[in-house]
Structures are given as structure tokens and as C-alpha cells.
Amino acid sequence: MVKSVTNLSRSGLSDWLWQRVSAVIIAAYAVFIVGVLLANPDMDYASWQALFQTTWVQIFSFLAVLAIVGHAWIGLWTVATDYMKPLAVRFIFLAILGVTLFTYLIVAGRAIWGA
Questions:
Q1: Predicted confidence band at 13 (pLDDT cuts at 50, 70, 90)?
Q2: How many angstroms separate the CA atoms of 25 and 44, rounded?
Q3: Hey, where are the domains in the chain?
Q4: What pLDDT is recorded for position 102?
């Protein structure tokens, strides 16, 4: 049996639900970006910057980043607990993953909010 020492989520059902919700958010954001690019084939930097300075696009972008981070954490945690049997190896992998995803979240937040 796998110990849940590194599990930061509540249950399998909430993990499953978050995977599905985050996938829908990621897909909606991808459709939005592709739609913007198809609707504006000659979009220049100034109009791209103007689009991303609107609050709703910033919120949607950050929500997409949160969805990607949550989706990656749950997915890779599941893979790690299924295939990495030594607890030390799994813990090190998940620690590196956690730091990497947290760094990604901070950098993306700074890029989105212009800090």
C-alpha cells in the first residue's frame, strides 16, 4: 500500500474533479487564445499588450496558470505514487516538482500582472 505522506489533496474524488475542471479551464483558455489569433491575423505587439492589460484577460490567464499547476501536481503526484515505490525517491521528486510548479506560478503571476 502506498503511504499518502506527500499527498496534499483531500481525496481521490476531489483530485478527479479538479483534474476535470482544470482540463476544461485549460481547454477554454486555449480556444480563447487560438480564437484571438485567428480573428486578428495581423495582430501587432501593441494590440496584444492592450488585450492582456484588460483585467478579465489577466484573471482568465492567471486562472489558466492555476489550472495548469493544479493539473500538473495531481497528475504527476498520481504517477509518482503509482510508479515510484521508494518513499525517499518519491518525496524528492515531489519536492522538486512542488518547487518547480511554485516557481512557475510566481513567474507567470509576475508576467501577467506586470510586476
A1: confident
A2: 26
A3: 12-113
A4: 97
What CATH number is given for 12-113 in this structure? Answer: 1.20.1300.10
User: Which of these, 107, 90, 78, lies nearest to 18 by C-alpha position?
Assistant: 78
Split at pLDDT 50, 70, 90, the class of 24 is very high
Alpha-helix runs per DSSP H in 2-85: 12-39, 45-52, 55-83
3-class SS at 101? helix
* Nearest to 114, CA basis, from 53, 61, 60: 53
- pTM, 2 dp: 0.85
Positive or negative: CA dihedral 74, 79, 80, 85? positive
